[in-house]
Amino acid sequence: MKILLIGEYSNVHATLAEGLRALGHHVTVVSDGDGWKNYPRDIDLRRHSLGATGTLRYLFDLARIWPTLRGYDVVQLINPIFISLRAERIWPFYRFLRRHNGRVFLGAFGIDYFWVNGAFEERLFRYSDFNIGDELRDYPFLHTMLRDWLLGPKGELNLRMADDADGIITGLYEYEVCYRPHYPEKTRFIPFPINRATVTPTSTLRQEGEGKDSSSAPLRCFIGIQRSRSAYKGTDLMLSALEQLQADFGPERINIVRAESVPFARYQEMMNSSHVLLDQLYSYTPAMNALLAMAKGLIVVGGGEEEQYQLLGEHELRPIINVQPTQEDVYRQMARRLLSGSEDIHQLQLDSIEYIRRHHDHRNVAQQYEAFYQQQ
Question: What's the whole-model pTM score?
């Protein structure tokens, strides 16, 4: 098949393209590289600025590129906002793709109307980006996000696309739960892809039994900080828990590896030198950053609820240190499972690698996409 993937989140489309190409398909990725992360793509569609000059240049790029995006058997969009325009300007670009190509699929891989509606309005989750139980969370851009997606043109665009698309692909348990009740016949959960051939297990894999030795080298705990999103993602509470653990257990037992606004290559180096990744406090599931870390053999502290294991059909492995969305539980779980010597850290690292092999291998994931493309 000839397949067009438009947009990028955290290397999902670039990695999926590698899997689909390994199956013999011709794949073109059009994206902005997910901003500063600069992930690979075949056609670059960066918007260099929001000013008048940047807007004119971007519109010129769209006028040049869009007429060439025709004749594909499959088009997949990363999100309803798949290009860097206001939502009310995107529908004509979608209609062009619809008229000049075969089947069109909408990705449910990030923030959109159905995720916001399911988490905020319908309260489908015990906790989420929007709530902890019945209590509404508060962070700087919460109300803007709610207004844009529930009441504004972004939500309207999402509803039109979801109605019109041939299929909807959900990448996480949370998105699956939000979409399936509305579109049961055309929604399919497919896990995110990881190309294990490009991932080298970290050199910090501990030897068997070492995790139970309190005199072993310090546990290196990696956390990425985006100041503007720290409260939203929970890294503020996770970092506080780490600092308290280090104060209580000492730097000879636990080191904190903090990445803040560093290039992706440096980010990878810092991750490779670590044993543990803390990520996504308010999620039920590991997303691409955590999955990449697990492929390297890092233990993830974050979202690992039973619901997501059940969706995957995983009845044995439990490699993720699942925490409730509080600083106290992050502290408690890490102290009990990683610092007390009661659990084999080496085995958890091996289980993390096996988990990715079973559920996220990019070729196996691509085969699931291939089957869904052909069914719809």
Answer: 0.94
